[in-house]
């Protein structure tokens, strides 16, 4: 998992992407300025649906992501509880290691990590200027 992968990296910043992730060429140029502040541990990009026009279900998922991006912008504007969404996040290695890495026993490691960051006084920022695209399931099966 993620904890195994991090042991094979050396960078100061760790980024997480799902296997189906597609991001813009300037993704990191837009994300990094948000994490340069010493009080910020992580930054989350927008998440959007790559195949949103495939059918009604994929359009609904795109609508959900758009609404979530709207709420994330609001949280960020008031220095509130921006939440990591797994795909499209950037986090400082030192902070992640100090907090004990990802909790591999939870189903929602991104939200669990968000909570641990908040409880330990770290900020998470939201970057609306860039996005990570992912595939939505095409049917309920």
What does this 3D model show about the protein?
The structure is a single chain. The protein has a 5-stranded mixed sheet with strand order 1-4-3-5-2. The longest helix is centred in the middle third of the chain and has 22 residues. It is α+β, with helices and mostly antiparallel strands and 141 residues long. The chain is built from 5 helices and 5 strands, in the order αββαβαβααβ. The two termini are 25 Å apart. The model has no long low-confidence stretch (mean pLDDT 93).
Oligomer: single chain
Round the mean pLDDT to the nearest integer and report it: 93
Percentage of residues in strands: 15-25%
SSE sequence, one letter per element: HEEHEHEHHE
Please describe the biggest sheet, giving its number of strands, its sense, and whether it closes into a barrel.
Answer: 5 strands, mixed
Poorly predicted runs: none
Helix content: 25-40%
Coarse shape: globular
Count of runs of 4 or more consecutive helical residues: 5
Radius of gyration: 15 Å
Q: Numbering strands along the chain, what is their spatial order in the largest sheet?
A: 1-4-3-5-2
Number of strands: 5
Secondary structure class reads: alpha+beta
Cα end-to-end separation: 25 Å
